[in-house]
Design goal:
Layout lengths: L2 E4 L7 E5 L4 H10 L6 E5 L5 H13 L2 E3 L4 E5 L7 E2 L1 H4 L9 H8 L1 E5 L12 H9 L3 E5 L2 E5 L8 E3 L5 H12 L4 E5 L5 H12 L3 E3 L5 E5 L8 E3 L4 H13 L3 E5 L7 H9 L3 E5 L2 E5 L9 E4 L10 H8 L4 E7 L8 H7 L3 E5 L2 E6 L8 E2 L3 H13 L4 E4 L2 H4 L5 H7 L5 E3 L1
Parallel strand pairs: 2-15, 3-14, 6-7, 10-11, 18-19, 22-23
Antiparallel strand pairs: 1-23, 1-24, 3-5, 4-5, 7-9, 8-9, 11-13, 12-13, 15-17, 16-17, 19-21, 20-21
Bound molecules: uridine-diphosphate-N-acetylglucosamine.
The site of uridine-diphosphate-N-acetylglucosamine has 22 residues, from α1, α5 and α6.
Length: 419
């Protein structure tokens, strides 16, 4: 298992980072290709382990998946094994996205329940209830969801009681092939949903209401294979911009949409960073002022993203004074706290709120990544901890950050990977 050796930075990080395609948008689009018979293409795909896992899920189903480093070609003509096995779904929850397309197109499928996650239970009840509202019969047995439909799914109305990215993805995809009209209320507003809608419309889906909380879908009897690019990864961009702040440096992220991370940029401005944005870039400059503590609450988009909760907490440990970080999306997503404490951070957790007593110096220690974003947060903290930090279980980081070491090297820090 690989480990990172992270040196203390000798100077503030400076430079430019080109942001990769959004893994979470591509994962949804990869599943959506199952809605059509033929060869679909996706471009601007990041070269990441999660893409390989989803490719393996599609291959088990009978698809051919190939392409270049940033292009995927998915041929669904051989899709006939309508099952996603536990071995794959447990390693990546987004594998569960095949449920909606498979039952909508083939009238039956068997998909493993994802199981637990490093930061507590992550139910899929809303995925199932939404599909039931479209007429699917759902049976959960032996750890698998068996979904069937007698003929095509039927258009229906469903109100998501809470905002869920995954459930919106699954139910939306299924509704595209349901007979008649579907209305989905309180859908998630994350940019990855908009990217999926664009791709589905390119496949011939009839969807109205993009960017609003209500989607109206007029089902069609078949879709055609899609082709198109994806959006930039807002969480990757956010991570590098937080790296600028934690190192008191200046970083420009390019080929990304600053509108997708306004909550982060507002928070960074509030603590004292200078922010500049253009149509497809953002700069965070923390070289000029002393940063001050703040309060952050994660919320569904356009609120502050839970995926940047751990990275911003790493930053707040370096700012003199008391900051608060509350996660209302995932109450238990705090495994990084114990590791930050090993580096010397002072944090008290009460319920879903962490109180950060910032400003005490961090020093290196052996630490481990417990999930993708926790891993990224620990790298950021290690950059400013005194001495070389060894961070294990970096396979989590490999799931979500393309060319991580190369991009950091271009900013002036040599993170080493050792086996
Ligand atoms: C997606 C992202 C993940 C991000 C999260 C929140 C992907 C592949 N993953 O995860 O990186 O952290 O959005 O922005 O895009 N919930 C239920 N029942 C359900 C589904 C969700 O109660 O059936 C709850 C969850 O426990 C959570 C909240 O809804 O409290 C939001 O979760 P959701 O938006 O579904 O997250 P994911 O789609 O799993």
């Amino acid at each position: 298992m690989d480990t990172y050796l992270i040196p203390t930075i000798s100077q503030a990080l400076q430079g430019e980072v080109q942001i990769s395609g959004a893994k979470n948008a591509v994962l949804a689009v990869m599943a959506a290709t199952l809605l059509a018979d033929g060869i679909s293409e996706i471009t601007n795909v990041p070269h990441l382990k999660d893409m390989k896992t989803m490719s393996d899920v599609l291959r088990v189903i009978g698809c051919r998946v190939d392409g270049g480093p940033h292009t995927l070609r998915i041929d669904t003509r051989g899709a006939n094994h309508l099952e996603a096995p536990y071995e794959l779904v447990k390693t990546m929850r987004a594998s569960f996205y095949v449920l909606g397309p498979l039952v909508a197109r083939f009238g039956r499928c068997r998909v493993s329940l994802p199981g637990g996650c490093a930061w507590g239970p992550r139910p899929v009840d809303l995925h199932l209830k939404g599909l039931e509202a479209l007429g699917a019969s759902i049976k959960v047995t032996h750890g698998y969801v068996e979904a069937t439909s007698n003929g095509p799914l039927q258009g229906g109305e469903f109100h998501f009681p809470i905002s869920s990215v995954g459930a919106t993805v699954n139910v939306l995809m299924a509704a595209c092939l349901a007979k008649g009209k579907s209305i989905l209320h309180n859908v998630a507003l994350e940019p990855e949903i908009d990217a999926l809608i664009d791709y589905l419309i390119g496949m011939g889906a009839k969807i109205k209401g993009k960017g609003t909380k209500v989607l109206q879908i007029q089902g069609v009897s078949s879709l055609t294979p899609g082709s198109g690019s994806t959006i930039a990864d807002r969480i990757e961009a956010g991570t590098y911009l937080i790296a600028a702040a934690i190192s008191r440096g200046r970083i420009k992220t390019t080929k990304m949409n600053p509108q997708h991370i306004t909550a982060l940029l507002d928070a960074l401005q509030e603590i004292g960073c200078e922010i500049q944005t253009g149509p497809d870039w953002a700069i965070v400059d923390a070289t000029k002022k002393t940063l001050k503590p703040t309060s952050i609450t994660t919320l569904p988009h356009p609120g502050f993203p839970t995926d940047l909760q751990a990275p911003i907490m790493a930053l707040l440990t370096t700012i003199e004074g008391i900051s608060l970080v509350q996660d209302t999306v995932y109450d238990d997503r705090f495994t990084h706290i114990a590791e930050l404490e090993r580096l010397g951070a002072k944090i008290k957790l009460k319920g879903n709120t962490a109180q950060i007593y910032g400003g005490s110096p961090l020093s290196s220690a052996p630490i481990m990544a417990s999930d993708l974003r926790a891993g990224a947060a620990l790298v950021l903290a290690a950059l400013v901890a005194e001495g070389e930090t060894s961070l294990s279980r970096i396979y989590h980081i490999d799931r979500g950050y393309e060319d991580f070491e190369t991009k950091f090297r271009s900013l002036g820090v040599d993170i080493k990977r050792v086996s």
